[in-house]
Amino acid sequence: MLAGVDEAGRGALAGPVVAAAVILDPGLDPASFQDSKMLNVSEREILFEILLNSKSVIGVGVHSHRFVDRLNILGATMSAMARAVLALTDVPTEIVIDGNRVPRQLPGAKALIKGDALVPAISAASIVAKVTRDRIMVAMSKRFPNYSFEIHKGYATAGHYRALAQWGPCDVHRRSFNLTIQESLF
């Protein structure tokens, strides 16, 4: 059983980093799954629900913005990936991770650059991680309405930088990231 692993939120200025591990249900059409960045919101949501309602085995690992600040984004990402694999209820015989690094907690895993476009289980993991993180950021937008997290999900957009210029960072911003205003975005 192959588990695909991917993350969402690594480059965001705010919110958690979320990783997912998926052992894809063999009854699902693997061609249905592609990198979450290539799908629109409704396509991701539909595939997320299909995965949840299938016999796919899913594990999720989340680390808060505070953990990211304490450790660093790379360490937090690797830890979230390991947590996602450990959260699987079935033990995979093979683990393939999108990217060029393997968490030290997963010594037998393999890294695959652009794996989210090549391995359906990684594509499925990218969808789970992205939808999970997006939902967290939409919930955060209710607590911090001045930042429009429901729109940009905490990533570095012109609108996000404008909100930072006006309001300064809020409780869920990553202090270890450069939150200075990027004038070139205006």
Structure report:
This protein has 186 residues and is an alpha/beta fold. It has a single domain, classed as Ribonuclease H-like superfamily/Ribonuclease H (Nucleotidyltransferase, domain 5), CATH 3.30.420.10. It is 38% helix and 16% strand. It has a five-stranded mixed β-sheet with strand order 3-2-1-4-5. α1 packs across α4 (120-143). The longest helix is centred in the last third of the chain and has 24 residues, at 120-143. The protein is globular and about 50 Å long. Residues 182-186 have low confidence and may be disordered.
Order of helical and strand elements: EEHEHHEEHHH
Query: Taking strands numbered 1, 2, ... along the chain, how are they ordered across the largest sheet?
Result: 3-2-1-4-5
Helix content: 25-40%
Radius of gyration: 17 Å
Hey, roughly how much beta strand do the residues contain? 15-25%
- What fold name stands as the CATH topology? Nucleotidyltransferase, domain 5
Largest sheet: 5 strands, mixed
Number of strands: 5
Overall pLDDT = 93
How many distinct helices?
6
The CATH homologous superfamily name equals: Ribonuclease H-like superfamily/Ribonuclease H
* The CATH C-level class name: Alpha Beta
